[in-house]
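Entry 14. Ran structure prediction on the chain below.
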Amino acid sequence: MALWALALVCALPVAAQDNDAYLAGWQADFDRTSQKLNDLAAAFPDDMYGWRPAEGVRSVGEVCAHVVQANYALSGILGAESPADFPQDVEQSVTGKDDLLMWLEKSQDHARKAGASTASEDLTETVDAFGGTWSMYDVLILIGGHSHEHLGQLIAYARMNGVEPPWSGE
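Output, structure tokens:
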């Protein structure tokens, strides 16, 4: 019994280090993806923000607004309240390129701070959301994955319209 207890006590610092490494990796990945999203969103001309590949599919501007909405909503699951000036109907009310770029950056900063304020020992805590039970690990993965998903969508939109992703060199 004493050996088992000793093994458990020795493993706790390793688990905390793994969680800290995970949080640092998440932060770095989210930063890279956010920068690419911002750069690509800025590369689209103003008049293309209403462009959509087909009826019923989000436009360039609607994709940006959707990412904004999700960053605030998912950060809320981590316990970060949206700022008072955040327009809850951002997907309908914010349509101009400059305003969308501003809100995109603000929402990313908000998500970044929410991730940074998540204590490594709290990563296994669970919450009920989206009809299921999610750990804080899961929520962070969802925030990052969502940003990757819509970066890919905007890359496809850009390529369809001759807009070069700024980092691609092509």
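DSSP finds five helices and two strands in the chain. Will compare against last week's run tomorrow.
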